[in-house]
Design brief:
This protein folds into two domains: 17-182, Thiolase/Chalcone synthase (Peroxisomal Thiolase, Chain A, domain 1, 3-Layer(aba) Sandwich); 190-292 and 302-339, Thiolase/Chalcone synthase (Peroxisomal Thiolase, Chain A, domain 1, 3-Layer(aba) Sandwich), CATH 3.40.47. Helices cover 30% and strands 22% of the residues. The protein has helices at 34-40, 45-52, 66-81, 104-110, 127-140, 164-167, 223-226, 232-254, 271-280, 292-295, 302-313, and strands at 17-26, 31-33, 56-58, 88-92, 117-121, 146-154, 172-182, 190-197, 205-207, 228-230, 263-266, 321-328, 332-339. The strands form four sheets. Strands 1-7-6-4-5 form a five-stranded mixed beta sheet, with helices on both faces. Strand 4 (88-92), helix 4 (104-110) and strand 5 (117-121) form a beta-alpha-beta unit. Helix 3 (66-81) packs across helix 4 and helix 8 runs parallel beside helix 9 (271-280). The radius of gyration is 20 Å and the shape is globular. The N and C termini lie far apart (67 Å). 51% of the residues are buried. Bound molecules: oxa(dethia)-CoA. Oxa(dethia)-CoA is lined by residues 43, 47, 51-52, 125, 164-165, 168-169, 232-233, 235-236, 239, 269-270, 273, 297, 328.
Length: 358
């Protein structure tokens, strides 16, 4: 007989923790080096490496789209989790296949997951952290037991190829994780989150036309309004401040000191930003993942891609402490902590070709 039937209220049980149990990444094979860009833009390898730390990036072929990358990354994440079923699929992206419908239902269907809940999260480069928080909430509420969270972007479809300020930074790619219900002490368990936004600065990072505010009109919409625009210097300053503040907030919530962090996985915006944030937190730079050297800024994909690349190339002790922090258009920012997972199967590298990192 339950205590409720006996007239007493049921003893509340702790909600399940979200535990990361699968990880995968995918980069389209086409590699664009800094020298390739210098052939058509007024830039050079030294400027790009010195100002951003980026050596190359990958781009899709004409006809490909974000879902193509998300499906590959998602398949790899499911494989590494040892179980191909989930209750929900979340795709964080700024470059959905279409304005309507969302990209996630298509990704779910192509992964054989039709029937699962599926929706997109739009928080620009913070999208993956927002997606993780959403998935962890679904698990804590008992709405889902297993969730696939994908960060996928094809900035090559929105950046003007003639815009040297942005064409050098962004690359295409996808990364994915599987979260399952579990215990907070297990390797892979997610801890607290910090999320925030400030829409007063929406024009700092923007594609002006294409939404309900400004439908594209043939002959009237300018080329600039159809493409991605960013006020680089202001974004840079905000990224450093917001990422450090958010990281500190979530470390406080977790009861961790910066020195407790074994691996720091920030959104891969610019090597100088990552080093400034690490320095601000007094975290040794060697603990900071710097996957952007070979892939650039891949938007919502950058954190899970960096994790997948690390899992494929470097042995990390399950239970090691991990700090994720991101910043992006909106403005949005967010951080969370977790521990390194124990995966059922090895994670293949997101890309098998030559690494152009110096
Ligand atoms: O994912 C969302 C978050 N995004 C970011 O965090 C990006 C943040 N911003 C940045 O990473 C940097 O601001 C950029 C990499 C975008 C630009 O670097 P910067 O050091 O802020 O350069 P700048 O815009 O101040 O430009 C310095 C100079 C300018 O020339 P003058 O005016 O000093 O003569 C630019 O015209 O560099 C010039 N420049 C370039 N030169 C060669 C700008 N882009 C290039 C280029 N190649 N690609």
């Amino acid at each position: 007989m339950s205590s409720a039937v006996a007239g007493r209220p049921p003893v509340p049980s702790a909600p399940p923790a979200a535990v990361l149990c699968g990880l995968g990444g995918w980069l389209p094979p086409r590699l664009v080096t800094n020298d390739d860009l210098a052939e058509r833009l007024d830039t050079d390898d030294t400027w790009i490496r010195t100002r951003t730390g980026i050596g190359s990036r990958h781009t899709i072929e004409p006809g490909q789209a974000t879902s193509d990358l998300a499906v590959e990354a998602g398949r790899r994440a499911l494989d590494s989790s040892g179980d191909s079923s989930v209750d929900a699929v979340v795709v964080a992206t700024t470059t959905p296949d279409r304005t309507c419908p969302a990209t996630a239902p298509l990704v779910a269907a192509r992964l054989g997951l039709a029937g699962a809940a599926a929706f997109d999260v739009a928080a620009v480069c913070t999208g993956f952290v927002y997606g993780l928080a959403t998935a962890a909430g679904l698990i804590a509420a008992g709405t889902a037991r297993r969730v696939l969270v994908t960060g996928a972007d094809t900035y090559s479809t929105i950046v003007d190829p003639a815009d040297r300020a942005n064409a050098i930074i962004f690359g295409d790619g996808a990364g994915a994780v599987v979260l399952r219900a579990g215990h907070p002490d297990e390797p892979g368990a997610l801890g607290p989150f910090d999320l925030g936004s400030d829409g007063a600065h929406e024009d700092m990072i923007m594609v002006a036309a294409g939404g309900s505010r400004s439908r594209p009109e043939p002959g009237r919409t300018s080329r600039a309004d159809l493409h991605f625009a960013m006020r680089g210097k202001e974004v840079y300053r905000n990224a450093v401040t917001r990422m450090a503040e958010s990281a500190r907030t979530v470390l406080d919530r977790a009861g961790w000191k910066p020195a407790d962090v074994d691996l720091f996985a920030p959104h891969q915006a610019n090597l100088r930003i990552l080093h400034s944030v690490a320095d601000d937190l007094e975290l040794p730079r060697e603990r900071c993942l710097t996957h952007l050297r070979s892939v650039g800024n891949t938007g919502a994909a950058s954190i899970p891609l960096a994790l997948a690349d690390t899992a494929a190339r470097t042995p990390v002790e399950p239970g090691s402490r991990l700090l994720l922090t991101a910043f992006g258009g909106g403005l949005t920012w967010g951080s969370c902590v977790l521990t390194w997972p124990a995966l059922s199967a090895p994670v293949p590298p997101p890309y098998q070709g030559e690494d152009t990192t110096p």
